[in-house]
Protein backbone atom coordinates (compact mmCIF):
# COMPACT_ATOMS: atom_id res chain seq x y z
CA UNK A 1 0.00 0.00 0.00
CA UNK A 2 1.43 3.41 -0.99
CA UNK A 3 1.96 5.80 1.90
CA UNK A 4 4.20 8.82 1.37
CA UNK A 5 4.57 9.28 5.14
CA UNK A 6 5.43 5.69 5.96
CA UNK A 7 8.87 4.85 7.36
CA UNK A 8 8.86 1.59 5.41
CA UNK A 9 10.58 1.63 2.01
CA UNK A 10 8.02 -0.78 0.51
CA UNK A 11 5.31 1.75 1.27
CA UNK A 12 6.89 5.10 0.38
CA UNK A 13 8.40 3.57 -2.78
CA UNK A 14 5.39 1.36 -3.52
CA UNK A 15 5.95 -0.92 -6.52
CA UNK A 16 2.19 -0.90 -7.26
CA UNK A 17 2.07 2.89 -7.18
CA UNK A 18 4.94 3.07 -9.66
CA UNK A 19 3.24 0.57 -11.98
CA UNK A 20 -0.01 2.54 -11.79
CA UNK A 21 1.94 5.76 -12.42
CA UNK A 22 3.55 4.28 -15.53
CA UNK A 23 0.18 3.00 -16.79
CA UNK A 24 -1.36 6.45 -16.14
CA UNK A 25 1.54 8.09 -17.99
CA UNK A 26 1.10 5.72 -20.94
CA UNK A 27 -2.62 6.38 -21.13
CA UNK A 28 -2.09 10.14 -21.03
CA UNK A 29 1.15 10.65 -22.87
CA UNK A 30 -0.67 12.18 -25.83
CA UNK A 31 -3.44 13.83 -23.83
CA UNK A 32 -2.57 17.38 -24.82
CA UNK A 33 -5.13 19.02 -22.52
CA UNK A 34 -3.63 17.25 -19.50
CA UNK A 35 -0.06 17.89 -20.65
CA UNK A 36 -0.81 21.59 -21.06
CA UNK A 37 -2.35 21.69 -17.59
CA UNK A 38 0.74 20.01 -16.09
CA UNK A 39 3.06 22.43 -17.88
CA UNK A 40 0.95 25.35 -16.62
CA UNK A 41 1.25 23.99 -13.08
CA UNK A 42 5.02 23.59 -13.50
CA UNK A 43 5.26 27.23 -14.56
CA UNK A 44 4.20 28.20 -11.02
CA UNK A 45 7.58 26.77 -9.91
CA UNK A 46 6.12 24.80 -7.04
CA UNK A 47 7.06 21.45 -8.52
CA UNK A 48 5.11 18.47 -9.81
CA UNK A 49 4.01 15.13 -8.38
CA UNK A 50 5.65 11.94 -9.58
CA UNK A 51 2.51 11.16 -11.60
CA UNK A 52 2.42 14.51 -13.35
CA UNK A 53 6.13 14.48 -14.09
CA UNK A 54 5.87 10.90 -15.39
CA UNK A 55 3.26 11.99 -17.94
CA UNK A 56 5.66 14.65 -19.24
CA UNK A 57 8.53 12.17 -19.37
CA UNK A 58 6.41 9.73 -21.41
CA UNK A 59 5.08 12.38 -23.79
CA UNK A 60 6.36 11.78 -27.36
CA UNK A 61 4.93 14.99 -28.89
CA UNK A 62 7.85 17.02 -30.18
CA UNK A 63 6.17 20.40 -29.75
CA UNK A 64 5.31 19.66 -26.11
CA UNK A 65 8.80 18.37 -25.45
CA UNK A 66 10.25 21.62 -26.75
CA UNK A 67 7.98 23.45 -24.32
CA UNK A 68 9.24 21.24 -21.50
CA UNK A 69 12.86 22.00 -22.43
CA UNK A 70 12.18 25.72 -22.60
CA UNK A 71 10.49 25.69 -19.21
CA UNK A 72 13.33 23.65 -17.67
CA UNK A 73 15.82 26.19 -18.99
CA UNK A 74 13.76 29.08 -17.66
CA UNK A 75 13.38 27.50 -14.20
CA UNK A 76 17.08 26.80 -14.18
CA UNK A 77 17.77 30.47 -14.91
CA UNK A 78 15.25 31.73 -12.34
CA UNK A 79 16.62 29.59 -9.49
CA UNK A 80 20.29 29.26 -10.31
CA UNK A 81 20.96 32.16 -12.67
CA UNK A 82 24.07 31.36 -14.71
CA UNK A 83 26.04 29.98 -11.76
CA UNK A 84 27.51 26.48 -11.71
CA UNK A 85 28.90 25.15 -8.45
CA UNK A 86 32.20 23.27 -8.76
CA UNK A 87 33.29 20.22 -6.76
CA UNK A 88 35.65 17.25 -6.93
CA UNK A 89 35.32 13.66 -5.73
CA UNK A 90 37.99 12.28 -3.40
CA UNK A 91 38.17 8.49 -3.23
CA UNK A 92 39.33 7.39 0.21
CA UNK A 93 39.17 3.63 -0.19
CA UNK A 94 38.03 1.03 -2.70
CA UNK A 95 37.91 -1.86 -0.24
CA UNK A 96 34.37 -3.18 -0.43
CA UNK A 97 32.59 -6.30 0.79
CA UNK A 98 29.52 -5.87 -1.41
CA UNK A 99 28.79 -7.70 -4.62
CA UNK A 100 27.29 -4.92 -6.78
CA UNK A 101 27.39 -6.35 -10.29
CA UNK A 102 27.87 -2.97 -12.00
CA UNK A 103 30.84 -1.67 -9.98
CA UNK A 104 34.48 -2.79 -10.31
CA UNK A 105 34.98 -2.46 -6.55
CA UNK A 106 32.75 -5.49 -5.92
CA UNK A 107 34.36 -7.96 -3.53
CA UNK A 108 34.94 -10.70 -6.11
CA UNK A 109 37.11 -8.49 -8.33
CA UNK A 110 40.51 -9.86 -7.37
CA UNK A 111 42.67 -8.04 -9.89
CA UNK A 112 41.81 -4.39 -9.21
CA UNK A 113 44.40 -2.84 -6.87
CA UNK A 114 42.83 -2.17 -3.46
CA UNK A 115 43.85 0.95 -1.61
CA UNK A 116 42.88 2.94 1.42
CA UNK A 117 44.42 6.36 1.86
CA UNK A 118 46.33 6.97 5.07
CA UNK A 119 45.92 10.36 6.76
CA UNK A 120 49.24 11.41 5.26
CA UNK A 121 48.07 10.38 1.79
CA UNK A 122 44.82 12.27 2.35
CA UNK A 123 46.88 15.37 3.16
CA UNK A 124 48.76 15.01 -0.10
CA UNK A 125 45.59 14.52 -2.10
CA UNK A 126 43.88 17.48 -0.47
CA UNK A 127 46.84 19.77 -1.01
CA UNK A 128 46.82 18.73 -4.68
CA UNK A 129 43.07 19.49 -4.82
CA UNK A 130 43.56 22.83 -3.08
CA UNK A 131 46.31 23.67 -5.57
CA UNK A 132 43.81 23.08 -8.38
CA UNK A 133 41.44 25.52 -6.66
CA UNK A 134 38.81 23.21 -5.22
CA UNK A 135 36.89 24.21 -2.11
CA UNK A 136 34.17 21.54 -2.04
CA UNK A 137 34.79 17.80 -1.97
CA UNK A 138 32.65 14.69 -2.16
CA UNK A 139 34.31 11.82 -0.26
CA UNK A 140 33.76 8.38 -1.74
CA UNK A 141 34.46 4.94 -0.28
CA UNK A 142 33.36 1.34 -0.58
CA UNK A 143 31.71 -0.51 2.29
CA UNK A 144 34.13 -2.39 4.51
CA UNK A 145 33.25 -2.27 8.21
CA UNK A 146 36.71 -3.50 9.22
CA UNK A 147 38.82 -1.11 7.16
CA UNK A 148 36.52 1.78 6.35
CA UNK A 149 35.28 2.40 9.87
CA UNK A 150 33.35 5.40 11.12
CA UNK A 151 36.45 6.40 13.11
CA UNK A 152 38.42 6.40 9.87
CA UNK A 153 35.87 8.67 8.19
CA UNK A 154 35.72 11.04 11.16
CA UNK A 155 39.49 11.29 11.33
CA UNK A 156 39.68 11.85 7.57
CA UNK A 157 37.11 14.67 7.69
CA UNK A 158 39.04 16.32 10.52
CA UNK A 159 42.27 16.00 8.56
CA UNK A 160 40.69 17.54 5.45
CA UNK A 161 39.14 20.53 7.22
CA UNK A 162 42.42 21.09 9.07
CA UNK A 163 44.64 21.50 6.00
CA UNK A 164 45.50 25.11 5.27
CA UNK A 165 47.92 25.33 2.39
CA UNK A 166 48.74 28.72 0.86
CA UNK A 167 45.34 30.38 0.27
CA UNK A 168 43.64 27.00 -0.08
CA UNK A 169 40.99 25.45 2.13
CA UNK A 170 38.35 22.79 1.76
CA UNK A 171 35.25 24.52 3.03
CA UNK A 172 32.62 21.86 2.52
CA UNK A 173 33.07 18.10 2.74
CA UNK A 174 30.17 16.04 1.41
CA UNK A 175 30.28 12.30 1.87
CA UNK A 176 29.04 9.34 -0.14
CA UNK A 177 29.37 6.22 1.99
CA UNK A 178 27.29 3.12 2.69
CA UNK A 179 23.99 3.24 4.54
CA UNK A 180 24.58 3.31 8.28
CA UNK A 181 22.92 3.85 11.66
CA UNK A 182 21.28 6.97 13.12
CA UNK A 183 24.11 7.21 15.65
CA UNK A 184 26.73 7.17 12.91
CA UNK A 185 24.87 9.80 10.93
CA UNK A 186 24.83 11.93 14.05
CA UNK A 187 28.63 11.56 14.30
CA UNK A 188 29.03 12.60 10.67
CA UNK A 189 26.86 15.64 11.27
CA UNK A 190 28.95 16.59 14.32
CA UNK A 191 32.10 16.19 12.23
CA UNK A 192 30.78 18.93 9.95
CA UNK A 193 29.78 17.16 6.75
CA UNK A 194 27.74 19.09 4.22
CA UNK A 195 25.56 16.69 2.23
CA UNK A 196 25.19 12.98 2.87
CA UNK A 197 24.95 11.36 -0.55
CA UNK A 198 23.74 7.85 -1.17
CA UNK A 199 22.65 6.60 -4.57
CA UNK A 200 19.72 4.28 -4.57
CA UNK A 201 21.15 2.64 -7.73
CA UNK A 202 17.68 1.27 -8.58
CA UNK A 203 14.27 1.64 -6.97
CA UNK A 204 13.08 -1.62 -8.51
CA UNK A 205 13.32 -3.96 -5.54
CA UNK A 206 13.50 -7.21 -7.49
CA UNK A 207 16.28 -5.87 -9.73
CA UNK A 208 17.99 -4.35 -6.71
CA UNK A 209 18.20 -7.74 -5.02
CA UNK A 210 19.69 -9.31 -8.16
CA UNK A 211 22.17 -6.48 -8.75
CA UNK A 212 23.31 -6.66 -5.11
CA UNK A 213 23.55 -10.40 -4.57
CA UNK A 214 25.91 -10.33 -1.59
CA UNK A 215 27.00 -8.07 1.24
CA UNK A 216 25.10 -5.70 3.54
CA UNK A 217 23.93 -3.62 0.58
CA UNK A 218 21.71 -6.55 -0.42
CA UNK A 219 19.24 -5.31 2.21
CA UNK A 220 17.03 -3.12 0.01
CA UNK A 221 14.94 -1.71 2.84
CA UNK A 222 17.92 -0.77 5.00
CA UNK A 223 19.50 0.97 2.01
CA UNK A 224 16.33 2.75 0.88
CA UNK A 225 15.48 3.94 4.39
CA UNK A 226 19.00 5.36 4.92
CA UNK A 227 17.98 8.95 4.23
CA UNK A 228 15.30 8.74 6.91
CA UNK A 229 17.94 7.63 9.40
CA UNK A 230 20.32 10.36 8.20
CA UNK A 231 17.64 12.96 8.82
CA UNK A 232 16.85 11.47 12.22
CA UNK A 233 20.57 11.80 12.96
CA UNK A 234 20.37 15.52 12.18
CA UNK A 235 21.71 15.56 8.61
CA UNK A 236 19.26 17.76 6.79
CA UNK A 237 21.06 17.97 3.44
CA UNK A 238 20.82 14.64 1.67
CA UNK A 239 21.64 13.78 -1.93
CA UNK A 240 19.66 11.21 -3.95
CA UNK A 241 20.52 9.53 -7.23
CA UNK A 242 19.92 6.45 -9.33
CA UNK A 243 22.33 4.77 -11.68
CA UNK A 244 20.56 5.06 -15.01
CA UNK A 245 21.02 1.93 -17.08
CA UNK A 246 20.31 -0.62 -14.37
CA UNK A 247 16.52 -0.75 -14.71
CA UNK A 248 13.88 0.96 -16.84
CA UNK A 249 14.40 4.70 -16.67
CA UNK A 250 10.74 5.61 -16.30
CA UNK A 251 10.46 3.33 -13.28
CA UNK A 252 13.56 4.92 -11.73
CA UNK A 253 12.32 8.42 -12.44
CA UNK A 254 9.00 7.81 -10.67
CA UNK A 255 10.79 6.14 -7.73
CA UNK A 256 13.25 9.01 -7.42
CA UNK A 257 10.48 11.61 -7.25
CA UNK A 258 8.51 9.48 -4.78
CA UNK A 259 11.60 9.37 -2.59
CA UNK A 260 11.85 13.17 -2.75
CA UNK A 261 8.14 13.49 -1.91
CA UNK A 262 8.59 11.14 1.03
CA UNK A 263 11.43 13.19 2.54
CA UNK A 264 9.44 16.38 2.12
CA UNK A 265 6.34 14.79 3.71
CA UNK A 266 8.16 13.06 6.57
CA UNK A 267 10.77 15.71 7.42
CA UNK A 268 9.60 18.90 5.73
CA UNK A 269 12.78 19.03 3.58
CA UNK A 270 13.24 17.50 0.16
CA UNK A 271 16.59 16.29 -1.14
CA UNK A 272 19.34 18.92 -1.32
CA UNK A 273 20.67 17.40 -4.53
CA UNK A 274 19.86 14.77 -7.12
CA UNK A 275 22.65 13.16 -9.13
CA UNK A 276 22.09 11.59 -12.53
CA UNK A 277 24.91 9.10 -13.15
CA UNK A 278 24.70 6.74 -16.12
CA UNK A 279 26.30 3.33 -16.17
CA UNK A 280 29.78 3.56 -17.70
CA UNK A 281 32.59 1.28 -18.71
CA UNK A 282 35.01 0.35 -15.91
CA UNK A 283 37.49 -2.39 -15.02
CA UNK A 284 35.58 -5.68 -15.51
CA UNK A 285 32.29 -3.83 -16.16
CA UNK A 286 30.85 -3.65 -19.66
CA UNK A 287 27.77 -1.40 -19.77
CA UNK A 288 26.50 -3.29 -22.80
CA UNK A 289 25.78 -6.27 -20.60
CA UNK A 290 23.05 -4.23 -18.96
CA UNK A 291 19.85 -3.93 -21.02
CA UNK A 292 18.55 -0.60 -19.86
CA UNK A 293 21.08 1.91 -21.14
CA UNK A 294 19.62 5.24 -22.22
CA UNK A 295 20.67 7.45 -25.10
CA UNK A 296 21.62 11.11 -24.75
CA UNK A 297 18.20 12.41 -25.81
CA UNK A 298 16.40 10.38 -23.15
CA UNK A 299 19.00 11.34 -20.59
CA UNK A 300 18.52 15.04 -21.31
CA UNK A 301 14.75 14.74 -21.14
CA UNK A 302 15.05 13.09 -17.71
CA UNK A 303 17.18 16.02 -16.55
CA UNK A 304 14.64 18.56 -17.86
CA UNK A 305 11.73 16.74 -16.21
CA UNK A 306 13.55 16.50 -12.85
CA UNK A 307 14.35 20.22 -13.11
CA UNK A 308 10.72 21.23 -13.39
CA UNK A 309 9.45 18.61 -10.92
CA UNK A 310 11.78 19.69 -8.06
CA UNK A 311 12.92 23.25 -8.83
CA UNK A 312 14.61 23.76 -5.43
CA UNK A 313 16.82 20.71 -5.65
CA UNK A 314 20.38 21.08 -6.97
CA UNK A 315 21.31 18.69 -9.79
CA UNK A 316 24.74 17.16 -10.21
CA UNK A 317 26.51 15.73 -13.22
CA UNK A 318 29.93 14.10 -13.06
CA UNK A 319 32.82 13.53 -15.45
CA UNK A 320 31.16 10.24 -16.43
CA UNK A 321 29.59 12.41 -19.14
CA UNK A 322 31.55 13.98 -21.96
CA UNK A 323 31.89 17.67 -22.70
CA UNK A 324 29.07 18.00 -25.23
CA UNK A 325 26.56 16.09 -23.13
CA UNK A 326 27.50 18.15 -20.07
CA UNK A 327 27.06 21.31 -22.08
CA UNK A 328 23.47 20.48 -23.02
CA UNK A 329 22.68 19.21 -19.53
CA UNK A 330 23.82 22.52 -18.02
CA UNK A 331 21.17 24.39 -19.99
CA UNK A 332 18.41 22.06 -18.91
CA UNK A 333 18.93 22.00 -15.19
CA UNK A 334 22.32 20.91 -13.89
CA UNK A 335 23.61 23.23 -11.15
CA UNK A 336 26.77 21.44 -9.97
CA UNK A 337 29.56 19.77 -11.89
CA UNK A 338 32.86 18.18 -11.05
CA UNK A 339 36.04 19.23 -12.79
CA UNK A 340 39.54 17.78 -13.08
CA UNK A 341 38.25 14.62 -11.35
CA UNK A 342 40.13 11.43 -10.58
CA UNK A 343 37.94 8.43 -9.84
CA UNK A 344 40.77 6.34 -8.43
CA UNK A 345 42.07 6.09 -4.89
CA UNK A 346 44.96 8.53 -4.73
CA UNK A 347 45.09 9.92 -8.25
CA UNK A 348 45.45 13.65 -7.57
CA UNK A 349 48.88 13.84 -5.99
CA UNK A 350 50.38 11.34 -8.38
CA UNK A 351 48.58 9.88 -11.42
CA UNK A 352 48.34 6.09 -11.26
CA UNK A 353 50.21 3.96 -13.80
CA UNK A 354 47.63 2.72 -16.33
CA UNK A 355 48.13 -0.96 -15.55
CA UNK A 356 47.51 -0.35 -11.85
CA UNK A 357 44.33 1.63 -12.13
CA UNK A 358 41.98 1.67 -9.14
CA UNK A 359 39.34 3.77 -10.95
CA UNK A 360 35.65 3.26 -10.19
CA UNK A 361 34.63 4.25 -13.71
CA UNK A 362 36.18 5.68 -16.86
CA UNK A 363 36.15 9.45 -16.94
CA UNK A 364 34.72 10.87 -20.19
CA UNK A 365 35.67 14.46 -19.48
CA UNK A 366 39.42 14.57 -18.87
CA UNK A 367 39.93 18.33 -18.88
CA UNK A 368 41.71 20.12 -16.06
CA UNK A 369 39.73 22.29 -13.65
CA UNK A 370 41.23 25.38 -15.31
CA UNK A 371 39.95 24.18 -18.69
CA UNK A 372 36.49 23.42 -17.31
CA UNK A 373 36.30 26.83 -15.61
CA UNK A 374 37.33 28.60 -18.82
CA UNK A 375 34.87 26.55 -20.90
CA UNK A 376 32.04 27.49 -18.52
CA UNK A 377 32.93 31.18 -18.66
CA UNK A 378 33.14 31.13 -22.43
CA UNK A 379 29.52 29.99 -22.38
CA UNK A 380 28.70 32.86 -19.96
CA UNK A 381 28.32 30.65 -16.92
CA UNK A 382 29.84 31.72 -13.61
CA UNK A 383 31.83 28.88 -12.05
CA UNK A 384 31.16 29.18 -8.32
CA UNK A 385 33.28 27.84 -5.47
CA UNK A 386 30.72 29.03 -2.94
CA UNK A 387 30.10 27.03 0.22
CA UNK A 388 28.44 29.85 2.17
CA UNK A 389 25.08 28.30 3.10
CA UNK A 390 26.58 25.37 4.90
CA UNK A 391 29.02 27.59 6.77
CA UNK A 392 26.32 30.09 7.72
CA UNK A 393 24.15 27.25 9.03
CA UNK A 394 21.70 27.57 6.15
CA UNK A 395 21.01 23.85 5.72
CA UNK A 396 17.80 21.85 5.43
CA UNK A 397 14.65 23.93 5.82
CA UNK A 398 16.67 27.16 6.42
CA UNK A 399 18.31 26.64 3.03
CA UNK A 400 14.93 25.88 1.43
CA UNK A 401 13.36 29.01 2.88
CA UNK A 402 16.21 31.08 1.45
CA UNK A 403 15.47 29.54 -1.96
CA UNK A 404 11.77 30.18 -1.63
CA UNK A 405 12.22 33.80 -0.48
CA UNK A 406 13.83 34.75 -3.80
CA UNK A 407 16.78 36.26 -1.87
CA UNK A 408 19.11 33.64 -3.27
CA UNK A 409 20.01 36.05 -6.09
CA UNK A 410 21.40 38.47 -3.53
CA UNK A 411 23.40 35.66 -1.92
CA UNK A 412 24.51 33.15 -4.53
CA UNK A 413 25.38 35.61 -7.26
CA UNK A 414 27.75 37.77 -5.12
CA UNK A 415 29.21 34.66 -3.47
CA UNK A 416 29.85 33.11 -6.87
CA UNK A 417 31.67 36.24 -8.07
CA UNK A 418 33.81 36.56 -4.95
CA UNK A 419 34.82 32.89 -4.89
CA UNK A 420 35.52 32.96 -8.62
CA UNK A 421 37.75 35.99 -8.05
CA UNK A 422 39.67 34.03 -5.40
CA UNK A 423 40.08 31.19 -7.88
CA UNK A 424 41.31 33.53 -10.62
CA UNK A 425 43.84 35.18 -8.31
CA UNK A 426 45.22 31.98 -6.82
CA UNK A 427 44.95 29.20 -9.41
CA UNK A 428 43.88 30.25 -12.90
CA UNK A 429 46.06 30.37 -15.99
CA UNK A 430 46.57 33.92 -17.41
CA UNK A 431 44.11 33.23 -20.23
CA UNK A 432 41.41 31.98 -17.87
CA UNK A 433 42.01 34.89 -15.54
CA UNK A 434 41.58 37.44 -18.33
CA UNK A 435 38.24 35.91 -19.38
CA UNK A 436 37.13 35.65 -15.74
CA UNK A 437 37.96 39.24 -14.82
CA UNK A 438 35.88 40.52 -17.73
CA UNK A 439 33.02 38.25 -16.73
CA UNK A 440 33.11 39.50 -13.15
CA UNK A 441 33.12 43.15 -14.32
CA UNK A 442 29.96 42.46 -16.32
CA UNK A 443 28.21 40.27 -13.80
CA UNK A 444 28.74 42.45 -10.76
CA UNK A 445 26.30 44.90 -12.32
CA UNK A 446 23.63 42.20 -12.09
CA UNK A 447 23.66 42.08 -8.28
CA UNK A 448 20.11 43.37 -7.72
CA UNK A 449 20.55 45.14 -4.37
CA UNK A 450 22.68 48.29 -4.60
CA UNK A 451 24.04 48.04 -1.07
CA UNK A 452 25.06 44.43 -1.62
CA UNK A 453 26.61 45.39 -4.96
CA UNK A 454 28.83 48.00 -3.32
CA UNK A 455 29.97 45.53 -0.67
CA UNK A 456 30.83 43.02 -3.41
CA UNK A 457 32.84 45.62 -5.32
CA UNK A 458 34.80 46.46 -2.19
CA UNK A 459 35.39 42.77 -1.39
CA UNK A 460 36.58 42.08 -4.93
CA UNK A 461 39.08 44.89 -4.50
CA UNK A 462 40.27 43.46 -1.17
CA UNK A 463 40.70 40.00 -2.71
CA UNK A 464 42.81 41.42 -5.52
CA UNK A 465 44.79 44.10 -3.72
CA UNK A 466 45.02 42.95 -0.10
CA UNK A 467 45.14 39.18 -0.61
CA UNK A 468 42.04 38.85 1.60
CA UNK A 469 39.92 35.69 1.23
CA UNK A 470 36.71 34.00 2.29
CA UNK A 471 34.09 36.75 2.02
CA UNK A 472 30.52 35.54 1.95
CA UNK A 473 26.88 36.47 2.36
S1 LIG B 1 28.83 0.46 -5.73
FE1 LIG B 1 29.67 0.92 -3.71
S2 LIG B 1 29.00 -0.76 -2.45
FE2 LIG B 1 28.82 -1.47 -4.55
S3 LIG B 1 30.75 -2.50 -5.00
FE3 LIG B 1 30.93 -0.37 -5.66
S4 LIG B 1 31.89 0.63 -3.92
FE4 LIG B 1 31.04 -1.30 -3.17
S1 LIG C 1 24.86 30.98 -1.26
FE1 LIG C 1 24.23 28.90 -0.66
S2 LIG C 1 22.84 28.16 -2.26
FE2 LIG C 1 23.98 29.90 -3.04
S3 LIG C 1 25.73 28.97 -4.09
FE3 LIG C 1 26.39 29.51 -2.03
S4 LIG C 1 26.09 27.64 -0.87
FE4 LIG C 1 24.90 27.40 -2.73
UniProtKB/TrEMBL annotation:
Q: Which residues cross the membrane?
A: none
On whether 4Fe-4S is a keyword of this UniProt record, the answer is yes
- For this entry, the protein name equals [FeFe] hydrogenase H-cluster radical SAM maturase HydG
Q: Which UniProt keywords apply?
A: 4Fe-4S, Iron, Iron-sulfur, Metal-binding, S-adenosyl-L-methionine
One GO biological-process annotation of the entry reads:
water-soluble vitamin biosynthetic process
Does Iron appear among the keywords? yes
One annotated GO molecular function = 4 iron, 4 sulfur cluster binding
Which CDD domains would you find in this protein's record? Radical_SAM
**Do you know which NCBIfam families this protein is assigned to?**
rSAM_HydG (TIGR03955)
**What are its cofactors?**
[4Fe-4S] cluster
Listed PROSITE patterns: RADICAL_SAM
> Origin, by domain of life?
Bacteria
Q: Which residues form the signal peptide?
A: none
Q: Which residues form a coiled coil?
A: none
The UniProt record lists the Radical SAM core domain at 82-309
What organism is recorded for this protein? Candidatus Mediterraneibacter stercoravium
Amino acid sequence: MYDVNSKCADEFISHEEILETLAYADENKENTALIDAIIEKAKKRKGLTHREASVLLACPIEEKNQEIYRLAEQIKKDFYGNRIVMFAPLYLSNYCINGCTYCPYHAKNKHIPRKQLTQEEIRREVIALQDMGHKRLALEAGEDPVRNTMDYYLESIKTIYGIKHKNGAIRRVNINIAATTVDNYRLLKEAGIGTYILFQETYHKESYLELHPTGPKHDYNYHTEAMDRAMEGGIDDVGLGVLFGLDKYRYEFAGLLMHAEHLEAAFGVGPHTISVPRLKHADDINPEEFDNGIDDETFLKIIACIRIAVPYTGMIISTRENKSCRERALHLGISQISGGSRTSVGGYYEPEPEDESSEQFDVSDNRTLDEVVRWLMEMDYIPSFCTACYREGRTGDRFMSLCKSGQIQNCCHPNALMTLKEYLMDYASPETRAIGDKLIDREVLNVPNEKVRNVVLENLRLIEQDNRRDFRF
